């Protein structure tokens, strides 16, 4: 899968939820994880982050918006239940993305939402746990940007393997062949 992603939280109050999110991000191959305006207790979060993500994945803690930074070209995608948000099944994930989830009670603040390139919602009847929401978003990213065999029409697993990507010959070879054809016509 080309590109990268990171995932983080704003203003959370439950370290166990952050630990669960970080562990899941580690499992899905996140390039980085982060907190923003959060008092994350790593020891407490470690009860659910049994993979000890901060020892394997770059982890950033931003005290406020003035210190918040993302890599160049990285799109910020907020996960929030709002009328204006794009439903996750209809969303095309950016190749370079950082996903941010809000606190358990408050959700994403309006100032963070204003920084987002996109705001996405999970089409559920009511809000789900922060770790579950993050897992759903990362799984959707994997499904839509990863290379997998097509789903079968009937029940069960795929009947064919994932297609192998087809690449043309190098660009310089194509240009060389075009020049040779042009010279032959002269």
From TrEMBL:
InterPro entries: Alpha/beta_knot_MTases (IPR029028), rRNA_Methyltransferase (IPR051259), SpoU_MeTrfase (IPR001537), tRNA_m1G_MTases_N (IPR029026). GO terms for biological process: methylation; RNA processing. Residues 149-171 are annotated as: Disordered. One of its GO terms (molecular function) is RNA methyltransferase activity. Residues 8-139 form the tRNA/rRNA methyltransferase SpoU type domain. PANTHER family: OBP33PEP LIKE PROTEIN (PTHR43191:SF7), RRNA METHYLTRANSFERASE 3 (PTHR43191). The lineage of its organism: Bacteria, Pseudomonadati, Pseudomonadota, Alphaproteobacteria, Hyphomicrobiales. This is SpoU rRNA Methylase family protein.
